[in-house]
Prior knowledge:
The complex is a heterotrimer.
Chain A: E1 3-7, H1 17-27, E2 38-42, E3 47-51, H2 60-64, E4 70-72, E5 79-81, H3 91-95, E6 102-104, E7 109-111, H4 121-125, E8 131-135, H5 141-151
Antiparallel strand pairs in A: 1-8, 2-3, 4-5, 6-7
Chain B: E1 6-11, E2 16-21, H1 24-30, H2 33-44, E3 58-62, E4 76-81, E5 88-93, H3 97-103, E6 108-112, E7 119-124, E8 127-132, H4 141-151, E9 158-161, H5 164-167, E10 175-177, E11 181-183, H6 188-194, E12 197-203, H7 213-229, H8 231-238, H9 243-251, H10 272-276, E13 286-290, E14 300-303, E15 322-323, H11 327-333, H12 342-355, H13 359-375, H14 393-405, H15 409-413, H16 417-423, E16 432-433, E17 436-437, H17 447-455, H18 468-473, H19 481-494, H20 509-519, H21 526-547, H22 558-562, H23 577-588, H24 598-603
Parallel strand pairs in B: 1-6, 7-12
Antiparallel strand pairs in B: 1-2, 3-4, 3-6, 4-5, 7-8, 9-10, 9-12, 10-11, 13-14, 14-15, 16-17
Helix pairs in contact in B: 1-2, 2-21, 7-20, 11-13, 12-14, 13-16, 17-19, 17-23, 19-21, 19-23
Chain C: E1 2-6, H1 10-22, E2 27-32, H2 44-48, H3 65-68, E3 71-75, E4 78-82, E5 87-90, E6 95-97, E7 100-103, E8 107-109, E9 122-124, H4 128-137, E10 143-147, H5 151-162, E11 166-170, H6 183-195, E12 199-201, E13 206-211, E14 217-221, E15 224-229, E16 231-234, E17 238-240, E18 256-257, E19 269-271, E20 276-279, E21 286-287, H7 292-306, E22 319-324, E23 327-333, E24 342-348, E25 353-360, E26 363-370, H8 378-385, H9 392-398, H10 403-419
Parallel strand pairs in C: 1-2, 1-7, 2-3, 7-19, 9-16, 10-11, 10-16, 11-12, 18-20
Antiparallel strand pairs in C: 4-5, 5-6, 8-17, 13-14, 14-15, 20-21, 22-23, 23-26, 24-25, 25-26
Helix pairs in contact in C: 1-7, 9-10
The structure holds flavin-adenine dinucleotide and iron/sulfur cluster (SF4) (3 copies).
Amino acid sequence: MQKSLLIDPDKCTSCLQCEMACSFEHEGVFNPARSRIKIFEFEHGKRAVPYTCTQCAEAWCLHACPVEALVRNKTTGAVEVRDEICVGCKVCTIACPFGTVNYNPDSGKVIKCDLCGGDPQCAAACPTEAITYVDSAWTGYERMQAWAVKTDTKAATA
Amino acid sequence: MAWQRKVLRVDLTRGTSRVEPLNMEWANAYIGERGLGTKYLSENMDPKADALGPDNVLIFATGPLTGTMASTSGRYAVLCKGPLTNAIACSNSGGKFGAEMKFAGYDLIILQGRSEKPVYLHIVDDEVEILPADALWGKGVWFTEDWIKNHHGNPNLKVASIGEAGENLVRYACVVNDLHRAAGRSGVGAVMGSKNLKAIACHGTKGVRVDDPKRFMAVVKETHKKLAESGGRKELTKVGTNAMIDVMQEWGGLPTRNFQEVQFEGTGKINPEAAVTPNAHGHVNLITNKACFGCTIACGRIAHIDKEHFTVVNRKEYWHASGGLEYETAYALGPVVGVDDIDALTFANFMMNEHGMDPISFGVTLAAAMEMYEMGVLTREHTDGVELKFGNAEALAVMAEKTGKGEGFGKELGMGSMRLTAKYGHPELFMGVKGQEFAGYDSRALQGMGLGYATSNRGACHLKHDVFGEDMEDISGNNKAQPVKDSQDRVAMIDSTGLCLFTTAGWGVEDFVAQLDAACEGSWTKERCLESGERTWTLERMFNMRAGLTGADDSLPKRLLEDPAPSGNAKGKVAELGKMLPEYYAVRGWTTEGMPTNETLNRLAL
Amino acid sequence: MDYVIVGAGPAGVIAAETLAGLEPGADITLVSGEPEPPYSRMAIPYLLAEDIAEEGTHLRHTAGHYDARGIRVVHERVARLDPAARTLAFEGGGSRTYGKLLLATGAAPVRPPIPGMDLAKVKSCWTLADARQIIAGTKPGDRVVLMGAGFIGCIILEALVARKVKLTVIEMADRMVARMMDKTGGDMIGDWCRGQGVDVMTATRVTGIEEKVDGSLSLSLEGKEPVAADLVVCATGVRSNIGFLEGSGIDTGQGVLIDNYMATNLPDIYAAGDVAQGLDFSTGGHDVHAIQPTASEHGRVAARNMAGHRTAYRGSLVMNTLNTLGLISTSYGLWDGAEGGDEVVSLDRENARYLRLSFQGDVLVGALALGLTQHVGVLRGLIQTKVPLGKWKKVLQDDPHQIMTVYLACVQDATRRRAA
Lengths: 158, 606, 420
Ligand SMILES: Cc1cc2nc3c(=O)[nH]c(=O)nc-3n(C[C@H](O)[C@H](O)[C@H](O)COP(=O)(O)OP(=O)(O)OC[C@H]3O[C@@H](n4cnc5c(N)ncnc54)[C@H](O)[C@@H]3O)c2cc1C
Ligand code: SF4
Ligand code: SF4
Ligand code: SF4
């Protein structure tokens, strides 16, 4: 069974350990500005929402890519960026309706969550279990998908 | 590695800035943050300079572990000569600003001179701009943060700013970052205000690297675990620092009504239990807890005020959530002024954050004013018609706002307790040391704490030593000098790493050392780290000596030395400073006048 | 079923793959009018900039990708369509029949009707063949004139600068990228380019091009001094490739007219991509959106319908993103404002940051941004889900950069409502 990230914003304290773990895993440096997961805080700190790619079934990013730089990892289900192929055109960044593919001006390529190849470092680092890695069936995945479906151009199958 | 090796120097008089390499020799000797900041301050200014004049230097300093995955890595310190004490001021803060400053590439920001007009600093990585702050002058911290982010269209900016209190040179104005985290004590915000610097806004994308990433991650995994499992940590997460209010109440060390008493009958209405219990309207004060950058403890509280409470009933703008009560705020806005109305305390705390003031100094100053009012020294004429009696929640709320905005009697309260009591002829009612007010621990009930207060380089402070264990074990003044000295050095070291002192709930010195050693080049042993702490402490002391302070300033108020504690565990006891202080000078290797000997200075390579 | 897809750009390739996935074993022929393996025009600028080799422009990289899916790729140019006989005639002679047909022939550049446009040193930049000629025809220091600073022009601009030529941009409209940026944004991009040493002339009309005896070119301009050049790259617009459909009885406007199921007026004939004039999400009308995301969505939805999975298309949202010498700009939907709607603007000219959001009631319907790089996609999310912003609209009005906060608040509120 494939797994996915289950995010529970109510548990998040906005410590950003996840952002550091993510950037360290992918860039070898503690740098939230290059994290694939991002915590958004609002209402004077009352709410904090961790946010990253849901590896949505639609994969808008993947389909929009002109050079097949985005591919689905069959084992983890993650949509991954192939750096050697990405030309940095950023079409995926505007195509993903969740805003979870981002351009990295340092590398001239895009970055997105790849589930760390099946060992998500953000979940490992989270001290409050606001992020866990669980069987897809148990997660709010469907709920996120339901949201995704509203954006879906092919949803209204007659 | 760990350090960014860059210092940003800003000349506010000329309106210029430049980047210079970090002095690595100093970094190796003083680590970072508090220690390194102290070294840079000592080398960059004359300690005799007027604290509120252009020759004072203001330094924002991060540590080598700031912005790393070490838990609580969000700390930075603000240093300068303090306007409350005329001694060195060093206040540290959490939140996210410190890490952001590091991500922008700077270990330290040094601010010199004075801008002619109000300005703020806008930093995005290598781009540094000094911009006009006309739109912000006269505004609070919350407005300032929102405005700057909005103005630059950049929600990623982190902002450290002063409120009206800093502008008005309230002697205990603080620097507030991320809406409700503050470099709170000693008036560093007034110094920022005196320089006409409203804010520093910063965003960085450079990240922080460590020397041995693999080892560092292994060490961090261990230290995270250790902290997670510690009981003290669990308490901080669940209850927050205000867990202490019940402990101090029980012990009889909770300063009440300007230290006339040591236990407060209203504690049950403002303790953590009260914060989670619905009131008559079903309103619950506490909403959630919140972490600073990198922090796996999350002791911060987010609270809101009952909409029907008198402080906000007609003021919708204060209905939102914001920083809630910590122990020190609860003490200083509660027992010490005799108020037990949790919403009034929360409102006063909002005022502290919004207008940028240290709640401890404010509360203790208000307490002295209340005592003078009850004595008849102050009357309604002085207090804008407010009945300034202990326990008056309305007086607390009104004066918090007036002080923040610099209105009426608030201006007088803004002088701080020492200056206010002197002005009205009752200096003995000042509850503090070297001009700075006491935190929420009574020196008669915690003897080591008293010695720590008296010798703290920034004036009365509970955060520069840690002898709770010893104090609770032995209620007398015996055998306190050594542990006070040791913990002062240890804390100075911890304050220099970029991590938070509260991690000591689960960590020992070796844990800080292990993280430093993996993150920084070179070999960092326990001895080296502790010696660095002692060096920092001694350098702070030397700064103060050069500023004109003497051993005579290592004192406590007469009330604590002569009036016995009226109740609690220490009932009948007074602070035994006279006995402890000479012992302390001796273990420090200082003369009987409290001056470090040449031998000591040489040993520490000073 | 015998599926024939004419055109091997993204629309055609994605349609072929979708068909193969829905109907394993189906007979699928992909007709490419160009000799190379199916490639992406969008990648051409990176080829010009020498960031990638030609293979880097290919739509698919795995050897045997098409064969493995039962997709036959043939290289022919279709000359005529005979719907009655269900037959396609090829330019090189020969023909073939089809069961179901997808027209995905894309678009081709158009040149203004002025003298000199047929000179050898006046190039378009549309195909790999064009790109090879531009690469061969430019060396560092050459004077190159780029005619047209529309979306495609601006993308090429970046690549030409990377080739270190001395560049002059001439645009007829009063600003750059007039079809994706308002005056403010277009001018900011113009200023940015000038700041980086590119000569930009807007509101300037080229009236003719001549070749001088020394082999150099001279462009005459209306009311201005002529400009000399070693090479001219023309990017003055494109038109759907519908010429070969003349006489077939297919309804066309600017492109091939299609219904909400991507079908043309003729049975079993569909159209997708730059050649199709399809449903516009924002206006409800029909329009040619010559952009990659539309081509890929069209291709997928057309294939589903061709395979009998009746799927309504919700319309394509205009979206563009451009990197002009480091300045990133983006636009979505009704970025120039909606009728009867309102908007909020945040502008910081000095730091080249600009954000303009257009609302209809409390729904976001368009957006335009300069200098925004993180989480840009949520603008699409908000526009395309038509989520009512409610009280959060006020937050955006106070600070439009709170877009992510507002987006998350809306998602959270929606999920909570659904959970309740
Ligand atoms: C330089 C450049 C940069 C671009 N950058 C962007 C960008 O950044 N973002 C964006 O969204 N879009 C961009 N575009 C536009 C984008 O490439 C097109 O929208 C997209 O290619 C359209 O896909 P399509 O499949 O409809 O048509 P095309 O990709 O044009 O493919 C059409 C296919 O049909 C074939 N064909 C045409 N006529 C015939 C015929 N008679 N017989 C047989 N075959 C025929 C062609 O050979 C080709 O294989 C760019 C285009 C160019 C040229
Ligand atoms: S990046 Fe966006 S489009 Fe791509 S898989 Fe993730 S959520 Fe889907
Ligand atoms: S799973 Fe990995 S890549 Fe994805 S957000 Fe978490 S740490 Fe980052
Ligand atoms: S690590 Fe967990 S608690 Fe901390 S910010 Fe990330 S999701 Fe929130």
